[in-house]
Design a protein that fits this description.
With 307 residues, this protein is α/β, with parallel strands linked by helices. The protein has ten helices and nine strands. The protein is globular and about 50 Å long.
Length: 307
């Protein structure tokens, strides 16, 4: 997949939906890596000018200079994969580990995750993402769009393990630059693309609106708002998979109201069976009709009248 493309590329997808996007920068733009190591977190005095400058050590775009994951983190990954009944080829396992190594290295300078411990990160990011593999296989799709990708979870592990073509979407440039670096470093460019965009912008683009068979979203928004962002992107019969935990009764009620207005059919809560993820669930929402053109509303309107 061409990096920076506005949607996943692959021979199995809808040919009309797989044309390269010529949308302007307000919708998508390529995330170049040339500024991945510029800027800084530390302020220094420039002796030539007598003023403050900013400098930061270059952020890694390769894994060869990064420390390997600790043995305890690799063992946690073994346990999680076994619990989920997943067997990964050696190259796929390396891609998932290298993604996490880059995440932990970048997080020292860019706020990508609050989880800094490698063992905890395996559970809370990698294994949590992979709990959706059975649901995605059940949906029998070959491509998906991951909203609010941030550090690349769940989109990148799912692209590796299922496998599917994935469009990673995040509106924040520094996060998108990280995602570009991971795609390049792990060799996933034929399967994964990155778009710097808001979901609302994609929903206004006819090349994306009601064209996707599956949307994923992890730690993005409440379920009602999430349905409003995702359903305009889903084709009829498509599904949203959302990661949730704890007491979500009020969110489910809001999602039910949203589904009624947005063309939804049903909501299903699927328990997660993996070590360290007690109380985690996947919510699967299926769309059975068109979404009215008025949706999604802008952020201010959603704040004024939440579901």
């Amino acid at each position: 997949m061409e990096r920076g493309a506005s949607f996943a590329k692959g021979p199995r997808g809808d040919p009309a939906a797989n044309r390269p996007s010529d949308a302007g920068p307000s919708a998508h733009r390529r995330c170049a890596n040339d500024d991945a190591g510029s800027g800084a977190d530390a302020s220094l005095v420039d002796p030539r000018r007598g003023n403050l400058t900013r400098y930061r050590e270059p952020l890694p775009t390769h894994v060869r200079d990064l420390p390997p994951l600790p043995d305890a983190a690799r063992a946690r990954l073994d346990d999680g994969l076994a619990a989920l009944g997943l067997v990964l080829a050696a190259g796929d396992r390396s891609a998932i580990e290298d993604h996490l190594r880059l995440l932990l290295a970048w997080t020292r300078a860019v706020n990508l995750t609050a989880v800094r411990d490698p063992v905890a990160a395996v559970t809370s990011h990698v294994i949590d993402s992979l709990t959706a593999v059975p649901s995605i296989r059940d949906a029998a799709v070959d491509r998906l769009i991951d909203l609010g990708s941030g550090g690349g979870y769940p989109g990148i592990p799912l692209a590796v393990a299922v496998p599917v073509d994935v469009l990673l979407v995040d509106p924040i440039g520094k996060k998108a630059r990280f995602l570009e670096a991971v795609v390049a470093a792990t060799g996933l460019g034929e399967r994964v693309a990155v778009a710097v965009a808001r979901a609302e912008a994609l929903a206004a683009d006819p090349r994306h609106r009601e064209r996707w068979p599956l949307v994923t979203a992890r730690a993005v928004a409440g379920l009602g708002e999430l349905l409003e962002l995702a359903f305009p992107l889903l084709a009829t019969g498509g599904r949203l998979i959302a990661w949730k935990r704890g007491d979500i009764a009020s969110e489910l009620a809001a999602a039910g109201r949203a589904a009624d207005a947005l063309g939804g059919d049903r909501l299903e809560v699927r328990p997660v069976a993996a070590p360290g993820l007690v109380g985690h669930v996947l919510v699967v929402a299926t769309k059975d009709g068109p979404t009215p053109a008025a949706y999604p509303r802008g952020p201010a309107a959603r704040d004024r009248r939440p579901w």
